[in-house]
Design goal:
six-stranded parallel sheet; six-stranded mixed sheet; 12 strands; DNA-binding; alpha/beta; Rossmann fold; about 45% helix; homodimer
Amino acid sequence: MARQVKIKDIAQMAGVSAGTVDRILHNRGNVSSKSREAVEKVLAETGYKFNIHTSAVSLKKAYKLVIAIPTAIDGEYWGTVRKGIEHALDEYSDIAIDCEYAFYNQFDIFSCRNSFRSIAEKKPSAVIIGATFASETVALCRRLDKEDIPYVFVDSVIDKTNPSETYSSDQNACGRIVGRLLNLFTPKDAELAVFGSRRIGNERANNSMTRMKGLMEYFGSLGYRRIIKESRISVQEPEESKKDIIRFLEDNPAVKGIAVLNSRGYIVADSLAACGIKDIRLVSFDLTVNNIRCVKDGTISAIICQRPELQGFHAVKAIIRTLLYNIKEKNVHHFMPTDIVIKENLPMYKEIYVE
Amino acid sequence: MARQVKIKDIAQMAGVSAGTVDRILHNRGNVSSKSREAVEKVLAETGYKFNIHTSAVSLKKAYKLVIAIPTAIDGEYWGTVRKGIEHALDEYSDIAIDCEYAFYNQFDIFSCRNSFRSIAEKKPSAVIIGATFASETVALCRRLDKEDIPYVFVDSVIDKTNPSETYSSDQNACGRIVGRLLNLFTPKDAELAVFGSRRIGNERANNSMTRMKGLMEYFGSLGYRRIIKESRISVQEPEESKKDIIRFLEDNPAVKGIAVLNSRGYIVADSLAACGIKDIRLVSFDLTVNNIRCVKDGTISAIICQRPELQGFHAVKAIIRTLLYNIKEKNVHHFMPTDIVIKENLPMYKEIYVE
DNA sequence: CCATTGATTGTGTACGTGCACAAAATTAGA
DNA sequence: TCTAATTTTGTGCACGTACACAATCAATGG
């Protein structure tokens, strides 16, 4: 293992002291342009890398990380994101990171507004944002930009913001995946149905709409026609939706495959089970407890999973990179792999996602 | 963040010096039973954890890691395992680990024997083993056990060995996954075919046989009968196998779904393409370059991927845990999640996501 | 030209562990 | 009982970085 270049080496090569190199590496200011140029030249030449371990050892400042995401319930989407966050914090437990959650109700814009407004007052070193409402998020980001506080997005991207990094999945591709699965799962002459969300101005509904677009793109590219019934039913609350779903199926008896483009696939599955329908293939999103139950009992054929845990995990790692090593990425978008989960590989993912 | 307990704290509480605690933590011997008891009591009470960073900083000894796996070709299975290994070594590049590969030809037991025999002479601190031949592996492990050198398995498990940990995937479950996919992909009245390996006494062929068992279990549990033609063709070399495959398909025109239980799915795909057959659904294993090509052009419907890079990555992390922190797991078996890869989520997996 | 101020640079210590070596305690031998 | 050998215990330094503080340099005004 080649001996690594140290700050002292850099200092010697640039003809300055270690303190000056330190100031440059950490943007502490008070450095003459002459020194800066000399040091930066040597840094580039040597490809200097921080030693993560000694950095962590010497670090005295406690960073404050604020995590602004929808209420995280165990076994649901944001609960799993939080697990990934906590996993990463645990792995870096030797670094002093004070962590504070700022939860909000993802269906209530006022709750989001209140939560987001309090964030700047907490004087965070960095923020992880799970965005739902575009306008509120833009307002928060503008303020963070002004105070030069780095932030990272998980799950969604919001326009007109400047996150260091974003961890999300490719929703259009998710839609195309669902398309191909339904196409593979059903005979060519069978009809298909799609259920999405109707809510507008809400990013999670945007996700649903992007998935819809991807799904339609897939079927458009097939070279032959498949009949797709686009349902206007908004699958949100179990009891309200059930009747609508059953009526829809009575009206469309040739439907043999259904895509539910949000995480409420279990509601449709339960409706089907209630009618005793068994020959319809169902595909939905997210490994929530309810969906897991349906995959196990066979009423859902496949779940598309977007690695919420991995998103949270990587978001924290990105923050640590930014804070400790001063590596400021600008708007880098990382797409998570998208998993297809069926009954047989479910236990393997449960080990990772749920427990 | 709660202040962590230090070695000095432990020493003070136990009424000994830090040196004594150090000796106990690292099994360096020369400790009276009285001191040992006192310290171990305090260690248990406080739940002492090593500080990974300061450990790494102070570590002066260079560890030697030997990696005994089949020849690792980029874009093939073991090449991807190696990528995961190198990724982990890179992440821990601040720890001095001298790494030496001991490749062998996975189809040649003599090559394996020669390679494995040289390992003990290298005086490794730890070994990562990708096993193929049971007898040779048992011999190697026996020797490592005797010299108290920890080792970790990737990909396969071999009986009568004592690895600290094993990272592999559940081959039986893989077989069941393939079964369900083919069942979902084809009409009930269509015939199915299975291609495996014939080679005996070779662990990779054992993998193939375990998958076969899982596949049959799945179809046995269905509640209705599907016709499955079990081909005796050993899909190994492209040109030799092609003719056999084509003849098999001519003899079995009702076959509409095929499982290839090793990584040579592309050979069957190419054979189908050569005959102009387009309505057969094909499922195979491992994201090799050739299989990737076939998933892209649609001749393979799905690939089962066992996260080879994650296996390699975790194996190295396990070794580091063992060497640095003296955490000696005994025979812990970790199953990797098993991914279903189709054309649409393929690009996401191509970008390697470790951890 | 000197004093004062502010900008820039250099120096020293702490962080917690690993490990070498010195010191002390115990045991063995005569 | 005294010495030598051996076991056990304690001490101190190094690792590379962060950060506080001291030292030096340049600029400005009188």
